[in-house]
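Module 6 notes. Inverse folding takes a fixed backbone as the condition and produces residue identities as the prediction. Think of it as a translation problem where the source language is geometry and the target language is the twenty amino acids. Below is one complete input and output pair. Work through it position by position during the lab.
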């Protein structure tokens, strides 16, 4: 029998606008459609997916804290907070849950200020530049990591 897993999927600021603006950079799928794909992939992999989106840094920090004891891992697209938030980095390091960072766009091909991620040093790994596939690949990698016996990051 497979280890039952529950994964918190965190979407940061402005990602609620997906599918409505800037399809050239972020694709034409809505956030709801991305969540549906993740839930479907979760069914395939026997892992429950709980998606949360917030435009507020503190709400994201609280969600990370509340993940302890409820979720085995976190998949996060921190949006612009990737490049600014020591608070998110400290929260991820603080709960010590295996976390994978994803980005729709390739942040290293964009403006210089997007090249640095505050959270990259405290996550298992990062997938950037594959659109919605970044989420799916990141999710698969996280499930694989957890099933391989890596309960801590
Ligand atoms: O590529 C990504 O996934 C990002 O995390 C997206 C963030 C950006 O600040 C990061 O550098 C890279 C921005 C998300 C904003 O999403 C929008 C979607 C539609 C319209 C406007 C913004």
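Target side of the pair, the amino acids:
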């Amino acid at each position: 029998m497979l280890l039952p897993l529950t994964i918190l999927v965190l979407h940061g600021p402005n990602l609620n606008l997906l599918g409505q603006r800037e399809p050239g950079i972020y694709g034409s799928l809505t956030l709801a459609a991305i969540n549906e794909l993740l839930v479907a992939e979760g069914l395939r992999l026997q892992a429950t997916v709980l998606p949360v989106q917030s435009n507020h840094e503190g709400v994201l920090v609280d969600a990370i804290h509340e993940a302890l004891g409820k979720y085995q891992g976190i998949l996060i697209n921190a949006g612009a907070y990737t490049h600014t938030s020591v608070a998110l980095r400290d929260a991820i390091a603080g709960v010590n849950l295996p976390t994978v960072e994803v980005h729709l766009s390739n942040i290293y091909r964009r403006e210089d200020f997007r090249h640095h991620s505050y959270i990259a040093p405290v996550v298992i790994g990062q997938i950037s530049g594959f659109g919605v596939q970044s989420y799916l690949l990141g999710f698969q990698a996280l499930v694989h990591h957890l099933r391989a016996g890596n309960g801590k990051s």
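Reference fact for the lab report: The first strand starts at residue 5 and ends at 11.
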